[in-house]
TrEMBL record:
It is an enzyme of class 1 (oxidoreductase). Coiled coil: none annotated. This is Erythronate-4-phosphate dehydrogenase. SUPFAM superfamilies: Formate/glycerate dehydrogenase catalytic domain-like (SSF52283), NAD(P)-binding Rossmann-fold domains (SSF51735). Its EC number is 1.1.1.290. The keyword Disulfide bond does not apply. One of its GO terms (molecular function) is transcription corepressor activity. The gene is pdxB_1. InterPro entries: CtBP, D-iso_2-hydroxyacid_DH_PdxB, D-isomer_2_OHA_DH_cat_dom, D-isomer_DH_CS, D-isomer_DH_NAD-bd, NAD(P)-bd_dom_sf. PROSITE patterns: D_2_HYDROXYACID_DH_2, D_2_HYDROXYACID_DH_3. It comes from the Bacteria. Belongs to the D-isomer specific 2-hydroxyacid dehydrogenase family. Residues 23-331 form the D-isomer specific 2-hydroxyacid dehydrogenase catalytic domain. Residues 110-299 form the D-isomer specific 2-hydroxyacid dehydrogenase NAD-binding domain.
Length: 336
C-alpha cells in the first residue's frame, strides 16, 4: 500500500501525469469539490498528504482533521487558500510550485498592455461591424506610444522580473518597488528601485501588480491607491484578484483617472455576482469601449506550463514523503 494522497478539488479526474511521476508510490483519492465538507471526514483524517488546487479553502477546521497529513502541496503559486498558520501549529509543511508558468504569465501581462495601447479590440470590432467605414486608424481610446513611457512594477520576484525584462525590450523605462528584497538588489537587476509606493504611482504610466495575496495586500488597490496614480495611467493585474477593489477601479475608469485596465484575475472567480464594471464591459457600454481587457485567470496557461505544474507538484510529494526533502516551503517554522 502506497502513501494516501487526497486531491480534494482536482480540475481533472485523470491523474495520469501525477501517477507517472509518482510511479506506484501513491494511492490517489480524487474529488472535484469546492467545499471541504463535501468530502468524507475519514479521507481528511487518513491521508498522508494533500494535493490542492485553488478552488477549495483549507481553513483551521479542515487542518484540525489532518491527523496523519505530512505535507500539503498547492498545485500552483498562490497559497492564500491555505491557513498556513494552522498548518504550522500542526507541524504540517505547506509547499507551492513557483517554478512553472513564469514566462506565460509575463507574456500575458505584456500582451494585455499591447492589446490596450495598440487598440486591437477597438480596431477588430470596427472592421467586423463595417469593413469599409471601419477601416480607419484614428479616434481609438488609449492608443499611444509606449517607447519611453514608465513601467512601474509593484513586486520584483520571478514574474515581476520577467515582465520587466520584456517591457524594457519595448524601450520602456522600468521602475519598481519591493520592500522585501535586500538592499542592492537593483544593482544586479539594472532597473531603478524606488523607496515608496507613492513615488512609483506618481511616476508610472503603467502600474503592474506582482505581489502575493495576504492580509497586508488584500484590497490594496483601493480609492486611495488609485488617487495616487498618475493621471491617464494603465493598471495591469495578473497576480491575485483580491488585491484589487474592482468597484474602485470602475470609479477610476469612469472619472478617467485610469486610461485602461487589464485583469486576468478577479475577486470572485467565476465573477458571481457580476460586478458592475464587468456588466458594463459585457454590454459594451461606450464609456468603457477599448479600455478594459479581461481574461479568465488564464495567464499561467499553456500546455507546457500546465504539464510542468502537475509534474512539479507530484515530484514535491515524492521528494518529501520518500526522500524527506522539503521544497518550496511557504510556512517556515512548521518543524518546531
Amino acid at each position: 500500500m502506497g502513501f494516501k494522497i487526497l486531491v480534494p478539488d482536482a480540475h481533472l479526474r485523470d491523474l495520469a501525469v501525477e501517477r507517472q511521476v509518482s510511479k506506484e508510490l501513491f494511492d490517489y483519492t480524487v474529488y472535484d469539490e469546492t467545499s471541504a465538507h463535501a468530502i468524507p471526514e475519514s479521507d481528511w483524517r487518513d491521508c498522508d498528504a494533500v494535493l490542492l488546487w485553488h478552488r477549495m479553502q483549507i481553513d483551521k477546521s479542515v487542518v484540525e482533521m489532518l491527523d496523519n497529513c505530512k505535507l500539503i502541496v498547492r498545485v500552483g503559486v498562490g497559497f492564500d487558500n491555505v491557513d498556513i498558520n494552522a498548518c504550522r501549529e500542526r507541524h504540517i509543511p505547506v509547499s507551492n510550485v513557483p517554478n512553472y508558468g513564469t514566462t506565460e504569465v509575463a507574456d500575458h501581462a505584456v500582451a494585455m498592455l499591447l492589446y490596450l495601447v495598440r487598440g486591437l479590440g477597438t480596431y477588430e470590432r470596427r472592421l467586423k461591424a463595417d469593413p469599409v467605414n471601419g477601416f480607419v486608424a484614428e479616434n481609438v481610446p488609449v492608443v499611444r506610444r509606449i517607447r519611453g513611457a514608465t513601467f512601474g512594477a509593484i513586486g520584483m520576484g520571478r514574474i515581476g522580473t520577467a515582465v520587466a525584462r520584456r517591457v524594457a525590450a519595448l524601450d520602456m523605462q522600468v521602475i519598481y518597488h519591493d520592500p522585501l528584497l535586500p538592499e542592492g538588489h537593483e544593482l544586479g537587476l539594472g532597473f531603478e528601485r524606488v523607496k515608496t509606493l507613492e513615488e512609483l504611482l506618481a511616476r508610472a504610466d503603467v502600474v503592474s501588480l506582482h505581489v502575493p495575496l495576504s492580509s497586508s495586500t488584500r484590497g490594496m488597490v483601493d480609492d486611495t491607491f488609485l488617487d495616487m496614480c498618475k493621471d491617464d495611467s494603465i493598471l495591469i493585474n495578473i497576480a491575485r484578484g483580491g488585491l484589487v477593489d474592482i468597484n474602485a477601479v470602475e470609479r477610476a475608469l469612469r472619472s478617467a483617472k485610469l486610461a485602461a485596465v487589464g485583469l486576468d484575475v478577479l475577486p470572485n472567480e467565476p465573477p458571481v455576482p457580476l460586478p458592475a464594471l464587468l456588466e458594463a464591459w459585457r454590454n459594451e457600454e461606450p464609456w468603457l469601449a477599448g479600455r478594459l481587457v479581461v481574461t479568465p485567470h488564464s495567464a499561467f496557461y499553456s500546455q507546457a506550463g500546465y504539464l510542468d505544474m502537475r509534474c512539479f507538484s507530484a515530484q514535491i510529494l515524492v521528494d518529501y514523503l520518500v526522500h524527506k526533502t522539503v521544497r518550496n516551503n511557504v510556512n517556515p517554522g512548521w518543524q518546531k
